[in-house]
Amino acid sequence: MAHPPSTRAPQAPVTAPAGAPPAPGHPPAPAPRRGGWAESRERLRAAATTEPGRLWIIGTVVALLVVAFGAVTAWEVSDRASAADDVVSRSQPLSADAASIYRSLADADTAAASGFLAGAKEPHSVRLRYESDIATASRLLVKAAANTTGASDSGRSIAALNEQLPVYNGLIEQARANNRQGFPVGGAYLRYANDRMTQQLLPAAQKLYEAETGRLYDDYDQAETWPYAALAVGVVALGALFWAQRRNYLRTNRVLNHGLLAASAASVVVLLWLVAGHAVAAADLSTSRSSGQESLKVLNDARIDSLKARANENLTLVARGAVQTKGGADQYDTDYRAEMKDLVAKLGSAGDLADDASGRTPVKDAQDSVALWQKQHDIARKTDDAGDYDDALAKVIGASGSTGQSFDRVDAALEKAIGHEQREFTRAASDGKGALTGLPLGAAVLAVLGAAAAGVGISRRLAEYR
Amino acid sequence: MNGKGRLRGWGGVGGMALALAAAASLLVPLSRHGADGDGTQVGGSGVGQGVQAKADTCKDPEASLPPSVEDGPTIKRIRDNGKLVVGVDQNSYRWGYRNPATGKLEGFDIELVRAIAKDILGDPDAVIYRAIPTSQRIPALQKKQVDVVVRTMTINCKRIGQVAFSSAYFKAGQQVLAPKESSIKGFDDTLKGKKVCTAAGSTAFDELEKNSHGAVYKNLTVPSQLDCLVRLQLGEVDAVVTDNALAASQAAQDPAVKLQGAPFTEEYYGAATNLESTDLVRRINKVLEDYRSGGANSPWMKAYRDWLAADLPGISGPPEPKYR
After folding, report:
1. CATH value of B73-171+267-307 in 3.40.190.10, 3.30.565.10, 3.30.70.330, 3.40.50.300
2. Residue from A190, A316, A320, A323 to probe the interface with B (highest B Cβ count within 10 Å)
C-alpha cells in the first residue's frame, strides 16, 4: 500500500470532529503533503512500528475501502441502470420501429398486389393501406437514420432502403397506370416491383431489424451483467472491517467498537441492496426478454411470413403461370407454400413462448385462421387451375369466404398478439429498470457515512493513547 | 384403334416389333391420325417421322387432318353440354386478354373461338373460357379439362405427339422489337453491342445463341416475354427478340416501340385438342376453311384488321392449310 501518509501520522485523523457526526463527503483520508516519496515511505514505516501508527493506518485503509465500495457500486449500478434504460426507452423502441419498417414494406407489397387484382375497381381502402404503409416506412426510416451512424450495418441498410423505396414506388405506379388502361404489361411491372421488394428492400429491412435487435440484446447483456467489481470490493471492505474489529477485540477485550460496527452495518446494507436490486432488475429484464422480446421477434417474423405468403398468393393470379420453377411449378405458388410452412412453424413457437392466456388466445386465433386460409387457398388454386379465373379471383380477393379474409384475420390476430407482448415487455422491463432506482445514490451516501463512522471508531481508540 | 392394328401387323410380319418398340409410343398418335384419313404419311415415312420427332425436326408438323363436318363423340359431347370449353390466355394483348372495361376476353384468338362455337353450337357466346397458363396448355387438354386450346400455341414436332393440332391459322416468326427511333433495324448487325432481352428458354434465345450479331443478351433473360417490355421501357435493354405476334402485342401497349426488320424464323399457330378428338380437329379445320375464305373480306382478314394490323402490318392473308 502506498497511500501518501501525512507527516504527523497519528494525529491526523483526530482532526475529524470526534464524537460528532462527521461531515459527509469528507472521509478521514489524509491529504497528501509535500515532501519526497522516500521520506513519506520512511515515515509510514516509522508509524507502523507503533500501535497508534498501526491504528491510524488501519482506520485509513478501512475507510478508503468502504468509500471505494460505495463508489464502485454507484458507478457499476449507474451503468446497469443506464443500459436498462436503453433497453426500455431506446433500443427496444428502435427494434420495434425496424420491425414496423419491415412489416410496412411487406404490407405495401401485399396491398399493391391486392389492389392490382381488383384493377380499375381497386377499393379505396386498399389504396390507402398502401399509401400509409409507404408513409410509415419513410417516416420510421428517418427516425432510424437519426439514431444510427452511416458507417454501421444499420446505416447501410437504411441507405439501401432509402434508395430503393422510391424506385419500388415508381414501379408500382407504372403497374397501376398500365393496369388501369388494360395493358397486361402492368402485371409485368407489378412482378418486377415485387421482385425488387423481395430481393432488395425486404432483405435490407430484415438486416436493419436484426441489427437493431442485436443492439437491444447488447443492452440487455450489459444491464444483466453482475456488478462483480462492486461485489468484490464490498466483500473486501466487509472483510477488512471484520478483521479490524477482531483485532480490536483481541487487543482490548472490548467487544464493540461503535464506529466500526456502524461502518459494517452500512456496508452490509449496501451489499444486500446491491445484490437484491440487481437480482430483481436482472430477473425482470430477463422476463421482459424471454416473455416479451423473444415472443415479439417470433411474432414479427410470423407476420412478415404471412404478408409475403399473401403477396405471393395474389401474384399467382397476376402472373398466371408466367414465372415457373425449374420443376415447372408456378413460382409464386411455390413461394406461397414455403412461406405458409414457415408461418405455421413460427406460430407454433409463438404459442410455446406465450406464457398466459391473453398471449395464447390471439396466437391460437391466428393458427385457426391460417388453417382455414390454407384450405381456401387450395380450393382457389383448383378453381384457377381448372380455368375459372373469375371464380378463383373471387375466392382470393372476394368480400366473403375468400383467402383475403382469412389473411386479414391472421394479420389482426398477430397484431393483437404483438400488442400484448409489447405491453408485457414494457411492464417487465420498466419494473427491472425501477429495481435499480436510488441504488447508486443510496450506495454513495451509505458508503460515506460508513467510512466516517469507521474513522470515528478508530479515532476513539487512538484517543486512548494520548 | 386402327393404327394400333396396323402397328401390330408390321410387328408380326417384319419381326421388327422389338426394334420399333422405342419408336412405338411416338408412332401411336401419328399413325392414329393417318389411319383415320388418307394415311399418306403412315407407313415407312411414319416410322421416320416418329424417330425424327425425338430430334424435334419432323417434316411438316403443321399438316393436319382434312376438314370434315361429320359429328363424332367429341362434337356430340360438346352439343350435350351446350358449351364449348376453351383454354385461352388473358395476358396477351390483342390475342387473348381481358378488357378491364367490359371484363370480357377479347382478341384475335378469341374471335376464332367464337367462330368455332358458332359453327358447332350455333351461338358464338356458348363458350366457357378457361384462362390457363402456358405450362398448363398441354396438361389441360390431356386431362380433358378443356375441349380446345386457342392460345398463340406454336405447332411443333414435340407437341404433335402430345396433342392434336388444327391447320395453322397464323404464321408467326421471331422478330426484333425496339424503340421507333432506335438505330436497331432488324435481326442484323445493327444489334452489335446492344442489350437484347429474351425470355429464358425461348426460341429467341436459341437464335441469338446461333448468331447474336454482336448483341449482349446472356444475362438479360426474363421469365416471360412481356417482362422484356418492362426492361425496354425502363431503359435496361435496347431491344427485345420474341415471336412477332407477341412482339406486336407488346408494341400495342407502347406507342413508342415497333417491330423492326422482317421475321427471321417461321412458326405456325394452331388450335389444339386432345389427341383422341379427331372429329373436333376436322370440324375446326372446316371452320378455318370458311374463316379463311373471302379474300380481303374473309372473317380472318377482318379479325386481322381489328386486332393486329396496327402493330403487325403487311400481312395479306392467312397461311395456306396443309393436310395429310
Report:
1. 3.40.190.10
2. A320
